[in-house]
Amino acid sequence: MNKKTPQPKQKASTKKGLIYTILDEHLIFFVEAMAVNKTIHQDIEELYKTKSRLFKEYAAKSELSRHPLIINGSIQHEEISLKILGILHHTRENSINKQVEAIHEIIYKGWPRACRNVLNFRNTDIEAYIRELKNESKRNYAANSSELFIFFLLCSNSKMPIVSPAWMLSYFTALSLRAYVYSGESHFDSFKEKDKSTQAEILKLKESVFKEYGISISSDNQITIRNNELLSHFKFLYRLAFVENVEVYSMFRDIEFSENDIYDILCSSPGDVLSLSSEEAAKRVIMGYVVKLMAKSISSAKMHHFQQSAELAEIRNEAKALDSLTLENKKLKSENRLHLNSISDLKEKLRLASIEAEKPHLERIRELEKLIAKQREALLLQQEKDRELAALREFFFSLENRDSNLASTNDTETVMDLKDTVAAIIGGNPKWSAKMKELLPNWVFITSKGFDKRSLDNVQTVFFVPNSMSHSLYYKAVAIARNKNMDIGFIYSQNEQLALKEIAKTLARAGS
C-alpha cells in the first residue's frame, strides 16, 4: 500500500463540505467514531471550550443525546460524545467555516491511514486496506469499526469512485442494522406489554414466591429473606460488593424501586416466565433485585456526574465572564478618571478665561447692578403705594356709597367665612375692637404705635380704621405692610356687621 504523504491541495479539496455529507441517520456513528478514538479527545476538548455554553445547549436539544450508543458507555464516553454532538449540531446548523475546518483537521489527525488511502485513490487497494485492519490484533472491534466508517465517509465525499456503490450500500445497510440493534428496544416483553391474564398469573407467582421464601422489601429497599438457602445465595452477591469496599444497602437506600420492577425482573427471564419453578423464580428475583438496583445506582451516579460537570463548566464560564467584566470595568474607570481630569482642567481654564474677559467691564457691571437694584426697590415701593392708593380709593368710594353697602347679606355666614381667616386690624376704639375680637378670635388687633412688628409675621392682609388711629401708628403699620408685601384694606364703619361685610369684600377682591 502506498503511504505517500498527501499534497495540501488534494487535502483541501477532499475536506470541502465533509461534515455535511453525513446523513442524519448515520450521525450517531460519526459521534461514536470520534468518542472511541482517544487520540483526538484533547483536540475535541479544546474546540468545545471555545463555545461550551452554546455546544451544551445544542447537545441537550438533540434527539440523539439519550441514544444507547452514547449513554450505554462509560461516563467518559458519554461526556465526550455529548460534547461532540453539540459541536456537530451547532456547526451543521450555522455553517461556521472555522469550526468546519477544525473538525476536518481532527478527522485527519485521528485517522491518517483512512485519509491517506482516500487522498491517494489511484493506489488504494480496498481489500488490502480491510486486511490491514483485521490483522492489527491490538486494535479492538470499536476502533476498527470507527476507522472503517470514517474511510467510507471520506469515500462518499471524494469525487473519484474508490469504492463501488454496491460496497457503500452494503456497508451502510450494516450500519442501519446496527442502529436497530442499539435503538434501545427491549429484547423481552416487559410486564406492561403482557396481556391481562398473563399479568394476573405473574402477580400470583410473585405473591407465592415471596410468601414461600419469606421475601419482603421495605420502602427504603432493605430486603428480608427467611429461607436460609436463598439468604445464603443473596449474601454471596452482597459480599461481592464488599470486596470492592462498597456498602450496598446505603447505596440502594434512596433508589426508586417498585412492584413493577419485580414484575419486570420476572419477565426478563428467558422463555415463558410462568414455566419457572418457585426456586428459579426466587433466585431470579434476588439476582434481579441486586442487578437492577445496581444499574439504577450507576445511572443516578452518571446523571449526578454530568450535572456536576455542567455546573462546574457554568461556574468556570461565569468566572471567566466576571474576570472579563472586571478587567473591562477597570479599563473604563481609568478612562473615566482621565476624562474627569480633562473636564476639571477645562472648567478651570474656562473660569480663568471668564475672569480675564470680565475684568475690563467689572466696574460698569457693578454700577449697572446697583442701578438695577435701586430701580427694583423704587418699583416695589411704587407698587405698594399703588396698592395703598387703590385701597384708599375703595375706602372713599365706600364712604360715598354707604347705602349700597347695606345690601342684605347673611351676617352669620359672613362671620363663619371669616372666623378661620388670619388677618390684622390696625386702629379702632377699645370697645369696638373688643367686640370684633369676639367675632374674629384668630385675628391680630393693634391700637398702639408701640406694638411688636413680629405680631404681623403670619399675616397677609391688614385693615386700617382711619376714624380712630394716630398718624404714627398708621405710618409704622403701612411701612411694615409694604416691606412684607401685604394686602391693604380700610374699614370705615363702626358697626360690627357692616365692618365684617367690608372685610369680606376686600378679601374677596384680593383673592381674585
Question: Any descriptors?
Answer:
512 residues; mainly alpha; Rossmann fold; 3 domains; four-stranded parallel sheet; 6 strands; disordered N terminus
Summarize the structure in words.
The protein has 512 residues and is mostly helical. It folds into 3 domains: 8-181, no CATH class; 191-318, no CATH class; 401-511, Rossmann fold (3-Layer(aba) Sandwich). It contains 22 helices and 6 strands. The protein has helices at residues 8-15, 27-36, 41-50, 52-61, 68-71, 75-94, 97-110, 112-119, 126-135, 141-157, 165-181, 196-212, 228-243, 248-252, 259-267, 278-358, 362-400, 402-405, 411-418, 430-439, 471-483, 496-511; strands spanning 216-217, 223-224, 424-426, 444-446, 461-464, 487-490. A 4-stranded parallel beta sheet has the order 4-3-5-6, sandwiched between helices. A two-stranded antiparallel sheet has the order 1-2. Strand 1 and strand 2 form a beta hairpin. Helix 3 (41-50) crosses helix 6 and helix 19 (411-418) packs across helix 22. The longest helix is centred in the middle third of the chain and has 81 residues, at 278-358. The protein is elongated and about 135 Å long. The N and C termini lie far apart (114 Å). The model is unreliable at 1-16, 180-187 and 403-409 (pLDDT under 50).
